[in-house]
Every structure is written in structure tokens, then in C-alpha cells.
Amino acid sequence: MERVNLFIEQWLPVIGQAFVETMQMVIISLAISAVLGIPLGILLVLTRRGQAWDNKFIYQTLNIVVNIIRSVPFIILLFFILPFTKFIVGTTIGVQGVIVPLVIYTAPYIARLMESSLLEVDSGVREAYEAMGIKTRHIIWNVLLREARPSIILGLTIATVGLIGATAMAGLVGAGGLGDLAYRYGHLRYEVDIMYATVLILILLVQGIQSFGNALSAKLKKD
Asked: Dihedral of the CA atoms 175, 7, 161, 94 (nearest 10)?
């Protein structure tokens, strides 16, 4: 009991700060990635052959770029674009220094998930609206995005879980957060209690986000 009290007194503030840093990285990166990834996913769908904005060049270009970025593991991407990150935000450490690689890693992933979700929408529904002369921008908002909401929520949930894993790896460049805490104290200093606590928090965080995403998706499917 004394050991537990000592652990709480000594490490709780440190773990709390690391948790806040992780949430900052996840929330900021997810917001920016969604703003970039969702329109990119819509473009991937609408520029396909036979779609409203059929354009082979744009589709092939976007498809190749997305595939290239998604093929690079995050830890390699993180180090590979360090000069670009320094140019954009002026630093490569801390929460600010990891936002750029997290966005570059996550946005194409969200775009591909978005593309998959939109392609699940019944083409007959979309064609019926097109036959009535409804403009494409209205079809995007009122048909594609609306009908695909449950799938989109599940996709964003998957992206968020993947993003949490990426923030843990970002600790290797001093980004802070739970990953950095586990690496510096749990691995380098052999503080196994910190490692266990970090793993437990990450498990609970992922489980909570996944459960919330599943519940929200199920609710939207019923509406």
C-alpha cells in the first residue's frame, strides 16, 4: 500500500501531464487531418471513371500520392520529413513539432477510409438525384455524406486509434505524451511501473474511443 501511495504521489502529476500532451496531439492532428482527408476522399470518389467529376489524371495522381504516403511506416516518415517539419513550424520537438508528421500520416488514411465509406452508398440513390438535376455539391452533402455517416464514424474511429499509436511512437523524437514517458522512464530507466501504467492508460483510452465510435455509428444507422 505504501508503494502504491508513493507511486501516486511521485508519478501521477507526470502521467497526467503526459496524458494531456497525448490528447493535444490526437485532437489537433485529427481535426486537421479530417479537414484535409474528408475532401480528399470525396475527390477520390467523384473523379473515378463514370462519376460526376470523372477525371483520370486527377484520380490517378491522388491515388498514387495517397498510396505512397500510406506505404511509409510512421516512424520512418517521422524522421524523413524532419527538415520539412522544421521549416513549417520552426521546431521538431514537443507537441508542436509532431503535428506535421501526424497530419501527413493520418490525412491520406482518412481519405482512403472516406473513399471506402462513400463507395458503400447505393449508386441508385445517387443516380436518382442526378437525374432530377440536383447539383453535385448538394448530392455530396445531402446524399453521400448523409447516407455514409455510420461508416464514416467507424472510419474516423479507426483513424483515431491509429493516431494514438502514432503519438506513442512520436515520443522517440521528444514529442512528449505517453509514448515519450514510456520510452524515457519505462524503457531507458527500467521503471516498469511507469510502463505498466502507460500501457493500461492507452488500452483504456483506445477501448473508450472504440466503444464510443461503435455506439455512435449504431445510433446513426438506426436514424
From this structure: -10
